[in-house]
Input
Amino acid sequence: MSNSTSQGPVTPTTHTRNPWRIAVIVILSLALLGVAIGGGIWWGGRNSGNNASGVAGPAIGSGTASGNTDIIAVPINTADNPFTPPAGSDVKITPAKVDAPTVVPGGQVGLYGGSLNIASCDREQLIGFLATNPEKATAWAGVVGIAVADIAPFVRRLTSVILRADTIVANHGYANGAVTSFLSELQAGTAVLVNDRGQPVVRCFCGNPLTAPPTRISSPVYSGPTWPEWNPAAVTIIINNTTVITDFTIINITTGDAFTRPAGTDGTSDSAAGASPAPTTPAPTTPGPTTPAPTEPVPTTPIPTDEPTALPTGPVEKVFSVESIAGISSGPSKPSKFTIETRLFVTSIVTYHYDNGGAAPGQISLKSADGTVYGPWPTVGSDGQGGVPNAYWTATPNVSLEPGTYTVVDSSPSTWSWATDTGGRGIVIVSGVWTALPG
Output
């Protein structure tokens, strides 16, 4: 490197080139280049780490096969063709364990993380920037299919969450006055805004609108900078939930506990009531098989005098669920219990028994807070992921419950599946029809 400001006129001098000196310079240069490459320097100014270039991954999803599909890996706190300045912050987390490419509905518990009473995305900042940049606002609104005038109310209905697994989305950036579109794999820890069916709609770090990717990618090919946990076999695609989500169950990224965030809120309405606290009763009374000790009276299913004789009119809704995208274990350590504030006609209860190659269908009961047992009801088995027989146990109680807290009791707790993101609770889905309105 020369520095002409510190030198006067230079008289040319004839030098004899030393071949050994040249060789040393070349060797040192190659060594430095090797250190740079080995250290994972990303010359394009992106996140440090390895670079996936044409890495093929396993097929994702089912249905009609797609062709080869290019997917760009996007680490946290980086952006491709950002629409806006950061309107939120990504965070480094330990990702949820995903054993194979998975397509999941947006209402599945375990998909999203966050911090209690804290939103990772600033919706008003996003709205304000688009309001003062009309060209970008027009392009942004066009991607999500709304009018520019509807941007503010649209964004205020979204919910701030953090992806807990590497997630594939259709990403839309802005460059040279036009929208760019590309499939991205967003790293776990990315802050996003989701709609009321759990579908990611905005990436907060760059303001890019997101839409659903194909639900079948037969031959994904990855490129771009990656991260230490990156694995093309451990990705998710999130699709719209079949029903509107009124409350999201969020996994606390610091404690691992669950909390509730009402849809469309910014963290100020969070409630820890949805957490999975350790049972307050001694371990022997943790819900298990419902066969009572000989000294106890055998409970029967109580039927209120005004019990409906047929399914009430109204939609059947998923009213309580403990679901997972993580690796499955057997024998939950904490009860799966739920609270209702109005009368509920329970139409079905489904528990999951996967790890032991399925289990012969048993019985499911509900136990109220006062110790009353509803059931047991026989179950019917059905295949689980990968064709595992009798992985799902389905009971059809057709019974009314009064407001209160109920614990799901499975007759085979040793084969009942749970996962790290369920807080130790057994995987279960309770569906029914509300027969009275709150308040």
The helical segments are 19-38, 123-131, 134-144, 151-156.
